[in-house]
Amino acid sequence: MTADTKISLSIENVEKYYGGYRALSDIDISVVEGEFLVLVGPSGCGKSTLMRCIAGLEKIDAGTLRIGGRDVTSAIPSERGVAMVFQSYALYPHMTVADNIGFPLRIAKRPKAEIKARVAEVGRLLKIEGLLSRRPRELSGGQRQRVAIGRALVHQPQIYLFDEPLSNLDAALRVEMRVELARLHNATGTTMVYVTHDQVEAMTMANRIVVMNGGVIEQIGAPLELFNNPANRFVAGFIGQPTTNFVNGRVVSADAGAITVELPGGKPFPVAVTERLKGPTPTLEVGIRPQFFSLAQDGAADLTITVDVVEQLGDETLIYGELDGDQSITVQVAGQHHVARGARLDLAVDHDKVMLFDDRGLNLCRRPS
Amino acid sequence: MAGISQTAPRRSPLMRLGGRILAYSLVWAWAAFTIASMVWVVLSAFKSKREVLRSGFRLPSEANWENFGTAWTVGKLGAYFPNSLILVTVSVVIVLVVSAPAAYVLSRAKFRGRETLTNVFVLGMAIPIPMLFIPVFSVLAWLRLNDSLTGVSLVFVAISIPFTVYLLTGFFSSLPKELESAAILDGCTDFQVFRYVMLPMAGPGLATAGILNFIWLWNEYQLSLVLLNSPDNRTLPLGLYALQNAMQYTNNWPGLFAGVTIIIVPTIIVYAILSERMISGMTMGAVK
Amino acid sequence: MIRGRMIAGFLTPAILVYGFFFLLPTLFTFYYSLFDWSGFGEEKTFVGLQNYVRLWNDYVFWLSLWNTVMILLVGGVFIMGLAFLYTILINSGIWGKKFFRFIFFLPNIVSVVALSAMWAYIYNPRIGLLNTAFASVGLEGLSKTLWTSPDNIFWAMLAALIWVFTGFFLILIMAGVDKIPADMYEAADLAGASLWQKFRLITVPMTWDVLTISFVIWVINAIKMFEFPFAFGLLQVPQQLYTLGIYLYVMGFGKREPIYQLGYATAIGVVMLVLAFVMIVVIRRLMRTDSLEF
What we know:
The structure holds 3 protein chains of 3 kinds.
Chain A: E1 7-18, E2 21-32, E3 36-40, H1 47-55, E4 62-67, E5 70-71, E6 82-85, H2 97-107, H3 112-125, H4 141-153, E7 159-163, H5 171-188, E8 191-196, H6 199-205, E9 208-213, E10 216-221, H7 223-228, H8 233-238, E11 245-254, E12 258-262, E13 269-272, E14 283-288, E15 293-295, E16 303-312, E17 316-322, E18 328-334, E19 344-349, E20 355-357
Parallel strand pairs in A: 3-8, 3-9, 6-7, 7-8
Antiparallel strand pairs in A: 1-2, 1-4, 4-5, 9-10, 11-12, 11-14, 12-13, 14-20, 15-19, 16-17, 16-19, 17-18
Chain B: H1 2-7, H2 13-44, H3 49-54, H4 66-73, H5 77-108, H6 114-123, H7 133-142, H8 149-173, H9 177-185, H10 190-201, H11 203-219, H12 222-227, H13 236-250, H14 253-284
Chain C: H1 4-32, E1 35-37, E2 44-46, H2 50-56, H3 59-90, H4 97-105, H5 112-123, H6 129-136, H7 153-178, H8 182-190, H9 195-206, H10 208-223, H11 227-233, H12 244-253, H13 262-286
Antiparallel strand pairs in C: 1-2
């Protein structure tokens, strides 16, 4: 980070408890001004709780929150300079679209003329001028979404918070709104923090992704960094689709720079590692993304699977099979391949992309991308 | 599975037709009795005294509006009507004003003893009203509010609180939590969240509670009977009760029916317009 | 995160009115029942449980209790049976469901005094709907029945009560039945279930919660029964119509001449409350099942 990048949001050692349950522990994130930060993780991982803490809807039990350099740890929500778009949109059903968008200004007791002008401006920006006198129930899902964004825009916040805003939309609309949000981000240049459980949204929209699990941060990084270089087994499994294959491999030999592993029914192959193994380890968990298999030419097979199910997607083929010893494997290969159920299929593995995880789940192969 | 469904008894079309006819006749028998007796009472209000005694099911030969005049003036329902209207309207407004904030806090706030307090409110629905006759009388006497509509209105509010709080608590709980969060982020204080967002959204619930309470209190007569002594303070049900007792000696059936008509027509009009809402309000608590 | 001050402010008015005019009087009832108290202006004399001993030996009290229990049990069987039967008939796909529901519930929104006037007319031996109807179809013997004679008046009153309350419980049970997902019956049809099997294996278990609540509500209503029999009995309510509530009123306020045995009357109130709570607990025990999720 260079000296002139301003920190927009700084989350320092934040903890949150519900009774004896630790919902967030030791959360430490710095968000640069203008950044699009995505919080991602399975349900219950604490990502929404963290967002509500940033918004001030929940009190934090330890740590500090700064927005634009100002300590807002104990500030009330409306004084933090944040605006939030909710999963259900949270539009006020008894108010028109214009009243919904203008509500924050009305509460702030701004003059009527100003409210009208700002609402009209937001309406134009989001192309909902024609809907201003309607009520939320008369709108489609996408239109409601825009109104919710409009209500956030009118705040002119330092940070936008999005809590799974696209999860109630159908698939086509979701893609459209994703692009639109990216456009909005480019246009306003404001910091955005975005919560989702959908890793595709995370990968496509984020400057940086925070992967959370069980109330802790597993890894923070750029989307491709997380894909190429996950810190641990959890991140490797969470980011990327189809999910990474995890297979128990036997350690044949372990040197300083490489470990040679052997998969059940396959040939041993060496994997370059950056971390050392601590102590003698007979087996390691081997992570191979489905994309990094290829159909082996004669004799070059690293492993062989028994084919169970084949899914033809046209441009690619997904093959689900089993290694000897009942470990299941998913393979994604380009093009169309016809493989019979029960057939034996020889696969080659891109050795440079194989990941090894020790007994604590840490990735032993952190390759700089 | 196929074997089971083939051996299962299938009803023949004839049996099904028979079942239909049976269903229609049983349901209509009940409905016809209800409609006929109500219509008959209202029609009889237009008959003359002698006609009632002789005409049986026949329609009135002419509309004798003077029966209503008798009930209104001699039976003093004209004086009791405003008593009832003011007493009930004021009580309903107060019960909503008092119950809505309480129900809101009981359903949306976190504090110690919340459940206990909710139960204490709801418990009131199980307390037999006649039990209150004597102690309520003495509380009102102590406040020098005995035999006054003000006193009765306070009691009306109190006995309506359990159901109203129960109904509205359910209503407030069903409102989405995110709206509260959105309002807070939009700069609302706790009170503004209630005033501008939650209360307007509870409008249908308030309306339902208001209508149901209005009907019940309009018809209430046991506590009024105990608490109101002077004839000037009587409510419509008490006036009708007096009319009915007098009827034993005057045999003025049409006059009594005119009184019955006067008292039931407002509630039936309200019910005819809002029956769906009233029925759903009634059943909301029982059917989770 | 609503703050304490607002919580207190929002609760206080309701607590004050409810507490002062409802809860406190309820508690006073227990206290008053331990006194001999012959008028609102008079001194109270502490007599301990004397009033309850007197109740135990009071024939009229036992009669009132008996009548209340008869309303509770006989009325309850008819009301619940009819409400369930008519729910199923109205729900069997006949035309006009909403209309019938409207008509069945109608008596519940009409003033009880008006209803009692109406039923007095229906039962009137000379000009009543009932006897006129019997006469017009040639049932001369039945058309001479004195429906409100001492022998008949309780049952005549109970029939009217059943007519009123069936509509009330009909809407409750119907709301419960309407909540049962239609695909359950479709699945049962596919399995070849008979009408009776569907009723016993789907309708009853799926409406169990509503039935429990209905029974509880009926118990409360039956035990506090006052208005209808009181209005039905007119100024000199005959003892055949006495319920606990009416006897309480008579002992407290008298019929034509005031009686003012206030301590004694409140003891009856205590009995009503205890009876209600015991019955509610018993029903909850008897009907307890694992809550159904659907």
